[in-house]
Amino acid sequence: MNFKTTYLLFAMLGVLLLAVGLMRWLGPSPVDPAYIMDDLQKAKEAGADYVFNTKDPQSPYYVKDLKQAIADVTHGALADRAIVPTSANEAFEQAIDITGNAAILVHFGLPNTDDVIHVPALATHTMDKEIRFSWLAPLAWPTAIRMIAEGLVDLEGFVSSTVPLEETGKAIRHLRERANDPVKVQVAP
Questions:
Q1: What's the number of domains the chain is made of?
Q2: For residue 43, which of 5, 35, 100, 188 is within the disulfide window of CB 3.0 to 4.6 Å?
Q3: 119: domain CATH number?
Q4: Is there a domain that residue 1 lies in?
Q5: Does position 177 have pLDDT exceeding 50, yes or no?
Q6: Phi, psi of 28 (to 5 degrees)
Q7: pTM for this model (two decimals)
């Protein structure tokens, strides 16, 4: 990992906490992961150098123009990498817009059957961007599991609550409704 590389992650908190841990461990020097998500303070606590909120003007992390904010922290270069582990097309299309020359973008996850991603062909070609698609990323799991087992990634912020097995249905409903701002719910037998 190059210490000058700027990584952008568009995802929910659980994925982001794991990703920032992986980035911090892999990089010989700090990287600049920027997070676009709901719980930005947890991302900062996990080690994100920059966080941005484009939806809530009351947020201390609010930026009106994300592309300009990224340009400001990268001295105009924009981001070198973007990882979008969400099926939100808007997030991926925005990632295309805020990545720079020779950027690599990864669209991770399973989109809906009727999803269409719009790519500005000329700009993407002339900036020599590479787009990768991955559904399950089977080769990533052994590395992630090993890093977790060896304590290389801090998982403290992952579990927001623990419920007994008989409350699994209720916990799933709370996750879907975003009740009490859940990250991950652990089910105990």
A1: 2
A2: 35
A3: 3.40.50.720
A4: no
A5: yes
A6: -70, -20
A7: 0.67
